[in-house]
Amino acid sequence: MNFGKKIWLIGNTSEKSKKTMEKLSKILKAEHFLFDDINPDIVISVGGDGTLLRAMHMYEYQLNRVRFLGVHTGHLGFYTDFTDEDLFEVVDALYEENPAKAIHYPLIKVQVNFADGYQIVRHVLNESTIRRASKTMVGDVRISDYLFERFRGDGLSISTPTGSTAYNKSIGGAVVHPRVKAMQVAEIASLNNVVYRTLGSPMIVAEKDIITVCPAPEDDYSLTFDQLTFEYKNIKSIEYSLDGTTISFANCAHTSFWERVSKAFIGEVE
Ligand code: NAP
Ligand code: MN
User: Fold this and answer.
1) Which annotated residues bind NAD(+) (predicted)?
2) Which domains does the chain have, with CATH numbers?
């Protein structure tokens, strides 16, 4: 019996992922798992971390009930636990899976406030960035009520702990364990000279703080929410906070964070 768990599969377009998807759906159908893309209990992503990010955004408004499980068809990722070679282990894991034992990682709520009062709210699993497309971006950065700095440069990245190993790391941010509920603000090519001053280093902000960026009233900002990019005009402010939203991973065979970091960036230690 599989206790009527409802499953959905999301894969990328690589040949290996397509084949793995076919194999896995065959096995799951033979085991009488139900397939449901509207209200799944477990979403299985087949591909890489990018695939899991895409799957997360497809179920962004159901994160309180959906659990995720990642199968990688390339290298071990940060959001993937199983390889395409252990598909029967995936099935065993699905049988054993217990929602009470799910692993939770924090997401950042991003609220974009426009000059006319319109608002957009999104949640990100890796990071959200703001940049100005043409010239130097100028923006005031507040930490809760305190006006911290006037940033000048290409832009800013605000990342989650699990996102700390992604874009954040490439721009010199620190790697943060996901049990540390914090947001990291990292600068993208800040301008620092006798006239302009920013902190110049990444900073890790506590769980209860809200980061607010008020960009100068220009018309060409580009905002990313993980892998998604949008161009916006008339932004008044952007608020970043940890509102308690998490992504849940099926607990089965979940690789520990530091093991992933070491395997992804260092490899075998002699
Ligand atoms: P992509 O351009 O294919 O991703 C870039 C790389 O980042 C891929 O190797 C991806 O792994 C890896 N990655 C994604 N999330 C990660 C995480 N939490 N920790 C460590 N590595 C991670 O784009 P994508 O696959 O759609 O992923 C979007 C993410 O890519 C963005 O959220 C951003 O963090 C990152 N990115 C990084 C840079 C950079 O470092 N310069 C530039 C653009 C985007 P997979 O191969 O397993 O997908
Ligand atoms: Mn990718």
Assistant:
1) 49-50, 54, 126-127, 152, 154, 165-170, 189
2) 6-105+246-265 (3.40.50.10330), 108-241 (2.60.200.30)
DSSP letters, 34-82, are EE-SSS-SEEEEEESHHHHHHHHHHTGGGTTT-EEEEEESSS--SS--E
Query: Cβ(227) to ligand 1 under 6 A?
Result: yes
pLDDT, one tens digit per residue, over 84-141 is: 898 999 999 899 888 999 999 999 999 999 999 999 999 999 999 999 978 999 999 9
Which residues touch 136 (CB under 8 Å, ≥6 apart)?
Answer: 152, 153, 154, 191
Residue 79 and residue 238 in contact, taking contact as beta carbons nearer than 8 Å: no
Active site residue 81: no
266: which residues sit within 8 A by CB, 6+ positions away? none
For strand 67-72 and strand 246-249, is the pairing parallel, antiparallel, or unpaired? parallel
189 is in an annotated binding site: yes
Do residues 56 and 35 lie in contact, with contact meaning Cβ atoms separated by under 8 Å?
Answer: no
Q: Quickly tell me which residue has 């065993």 as its tokens.
A: 92
Q: What is this structure's pTM?
A: 0.96
126 labeled part of a ligand binding site? yes
Q: Are 58 and 214 in contact (CB under 8 A)?
A: no
Long-range contacts of 14-18 (CB under 8 A, 24+ apart): 14/47, 14/73, 14/74, 16/73, 16/74, 16/84, 17/46, 17/47, 17/51, 17/73
